[in-house]
Amino acid sequence: MPPAAGGSGVRSRTWSGPPQGCRLCGRMTREHREALVVGHPGHELRVDGWLTLAKPLTFVMTDGSGPTGAGRFASTEAILRDAGAIRGSVFGAMTDRAAYDAILSGDVALFRGLSDAIAAELVEHDITSVAGDGWEGYNPVHDACRLVIDAAVALASQRSGRAIENWSFPLVGRPDFASPGEETRFFVLDDAAFARKLEKAARYRELAADVEWAFAEYGRDAFRTEVLTRIPRPAWDDARFLHERPFYEEHGEARVREGKYAELIRYRDHVVPIAEGLRELAALRSPCASF
Prior knowledge:
Radius of gyration: 18 Å
Strand order of the largest sheet: 2-1-8-9-7-6-3-4-5
Order of helices and strands: EEEHEHEHHEHEEHHEHHH
Number of helices: 10
Shape: globular
Structural class: alpha/beta
Helix content: 40-55%
């Protein structure tokens, strides 16, 4: 596959519905400025082709320190430098432990502050499109990040007087999967761009086990295609986890039994209050709300 304009090695396609509706897109222009918001450093690897193409203003909520207490900023900053991306003001705003504690304690003000700060920069930099962590029920910090993104996009859209696009990408599951009927942007890497992505993944030593598992589960070639899905409504209006238990509750219960976790994060008890607080910040009142 030939590289896209400018030699990025990425071709992008956007469509809503069946393939006959697709259109080819060139490189991003100054009229289409993008931003990336992720919960943990390392998530950007999932969309390295898009990252190189878009060179987004990038926000990272935590330092990725996990249980070891050692952050992984150096690896992510190297990836951002290689892509020509710009670092935002919210970058490693807290440790992983602090993020989980904030969810457990219902520290809505912290997450409102993150949304407000990100929204201010989206307006300042004339951002027209934001991409970030998906709403998957896999990790509560990932889902809190999605809530922060949705509130920030809503705030920035209101303040700027123009609608800012809101996109997500998967952190678990097949990276090249898109649900039928959803508006999606596909970024397909040529051999050179894909080789660069694999080389960056190999250099990210802190995520070696995760990368190895993902390649074994889905095959390396699945990561050649990157998918961004348009967000039809804020995550606080998605009631799925009121009817099905998120993975992090099941995982957390096992860790509590093993004595590895002292407390369990539950969706209804801990995530919903944050969702409500961010809904109020964004001044959104939806008739679909189910909390």
